[in-house]
Write a structure and sequence with these properties.
By secondary structure, the chain is an alpha+beta fold. The protein contains 16 helices and 10 strands. The chain has a single domain, classed as Cytochrome p450. Helix 7 runs antiparallel to helix 12 and helix 12 packs across helix 14. One of its GO terms (molecular function) is oxidoreductase activity, acting on paired donors, with incorporation or reduction of molecular oxygen, reduced flavin or flavoprotein as one donor, and incorporation of one atom of oxygen.
Length: about 475
């Protein structure tokens, strides 16, 4: 008995030693940590509850991984400005599938090189605030937005779920930007890619425990999940390689006005000796990252916007009147944004009230760090809990109320503040934030210029959490006229 008591005391001392200097937080079980108490359907709500209990900076064990969770925007901005916070935590699903390739899971020299490459591509195609190509990008986005309007006009009658139409037309734009090609609506390859993207996002969210307990992959449920993800990755990468082979053969003879990411990569491959551009795996993962990140988050935001604005008809009438006064019968322009502050405020309020990445994108500590006087050990998972920042009643009064005026100043001009982090912040903030704003503004201005949107039937405003927080299916009626 004495030996067992000594072993127990030693284990407690080791645990206390590990926690020394860490932010406060709940105790967990051996091996499992706090995972049994995380709601797999709404992990953001579990973590937000812990923040209320332990404070804006807290820690917990997720399996064998030490996680530090930040919910104060000042602390988030301070930590993410540091080079040591630009890593990715060693999570099994992401690292086991991505192996540090692409952009989202890359770190160190590869991440810096590929982020610079993607930023330069975005500048080349006009996906930035300034640049000569901005008008070409505007025309390309409007082309897809107007095709969506035409599809609604000619095909969608009565109450419909807008998901399929939004996903096709937004996806067509993203396909053109990333791969330099479009798919017909009924193309089987396109249908397969959409299904793979949708199911993959859900399964990676459901497979959360696998990130921290890799041995779960041997259980039937998780084995099926991993099989789907790995087979889907392999098949999609074969598809990307076929597209690359076709494009590579025509590169010497053509150059698009707005080169796709794939074209830009292949041309850079011919110019740069850097290993990343010689590596097909890097190309495949980079294409998948930019395609998925561009489509999933923007699609979820558009769906939430139509749901909330469709439920508030007086607000929608003001929005449509503003668009009518500023735009009239011509196509909207990016220059109209300054004259449509309420529309910008409604987009921002949508991003606040339903953060499409409620847990943010997890970071990893490349070195021992310090935040708010607490220790962040090297190798820790750092979670930036956007949900808690955006739903904090001390920062956003009545956070569950859709109130766009919180993003308008006394003169009615659009403005945001430090408590608004839809694209994160710091060295690893979303590289495509400006392109996302362009797409959302032109798509939504085009829709509200042409249609009144009415939500019908029961709705659920809680959403479904996977990689993104997306609305459950709902139905709307698109009506012409005032």
């Amino acid at each position: 008995m004495v030996i067992y008591a000594l072993l127990l005391a030693l284990a407690l001392l080791l645990l206390l030693g590990r926690r020394r200097g860490l932010p406060p937080g709940p105790w967990g079980l051996p091996v499992l940590g706090y995972l049994p108490w995380i709601d797999p359907k709404a992990p953001h709500l579990t973590l937000a509850g812990l923040a209320r209990r332990y404070g804006p900076t807290f820690s917990l064990s997720l399996g064998r991984v030490c996680a530090v969770v930040l919910t104060d925007p000042r602390s988030i901005r301070t930590l993410l400005a540091r080079e040591g916070a630009t890593g990715r935590a060693p999570l099994y699903v992401t690292h086991g599938i991505m192996h540090g390739y692409g952009l989202i899971c890359a770190e160190g020299a590869r991440w810096k090189d590929q982020r610079k490459f993607v930023h330069n591509w975005l500048r080349t195609i006009g996906g930035t605030k300034l640049g000569t190509q901005r008008r070409l990008m505007e025309r390309l986005i409007l082309q897809h937005a107007q095709e969506l309007v035409q599809h609604i006009d000619t095909v969608l009658n009565g109450a419909v779920d807008p998901l399929a139409a939004l996903r096709h037309h937004l996806g067509s734009l993203v396909n053109q930007l990333v791969f330099g090609r479009r798919y017909p609506r009924e193309d089987p390859q396109w249908a397969w890619l959409q299904q793979l993207q949708e199911e993959g996002c859900k399964l990676i969210g459901v497979a959360g425990p696998l990130n921290f307990l890799p041995f779960l992959r041997f259980l039937p449920t998780f084995r099926r999940t991993m099989t789907f993800l790995l087979e889907g990755q392999q098949q999609s990468h074969l598809h990307y390689q076929a597209l690359a082979n076709q494009m590579d053969a025509s590169l010497p003879h053509s150059a698009a006005p707005l080169p796709s990411l794939l074209e830009h990569f292949l041309r850079q491959r011919r110019l740069s000796p850097h290993h990343a551009f010689r590596c097909d795996r890097q190309m495949h993962h980079l294409l998948a990252d930019i395609f998925g990140a561009s489509l999933d988050t923007t699609l979820a935001t558009l769906r939430w916007f139509l749901l909330y604005v469709g439920l508030d008809q007086p607000l929608q009438r003001r929005l449509r009147a503003d668009i009518g006064a500023a735009v009239g019968q011509r196509a909207p322009s990016l220059d109209d944004a300054a004259a449509l502050p309420l529309l910008q405020a409604c987009v921002a309020e949508t991003q606040r009230i339903r953060s499409v990445l409620p847990l943010g994108v997890p970071h990893g500590a490349l070195e021992e760090l310090e935040v708010d006087g607490f220790r962040v050990p090297r190798g820790s998972l750092v979670l930036l809990l956007q949900w808690a920042v955006h739903m904090d009643p001390a920062r956003h009064a009545h956070p569950e109320t859709f109130e766009p005026r919180r993003f308008l100043d006394a003169e009615g001009r659009f403005r945001t503040g430090p408590d608004f982090l839809p694209f994160q912040t710091g060295k690893r903030m979303c590289v495509g934030d400006e392109l996302a704003r362009q797409i959302m503004f032109l798509f939504l201005a085009s829709l509200l210029q042409n249609f009144r949107v009415e939500v019908v039937g029961e709705v659920d405003l809680e959403g479904v959490a996977g990689i993104t927080l997306s609305p459950r299916p709902y139905q709307v009626v698109f009506r012409r006229g005032p």
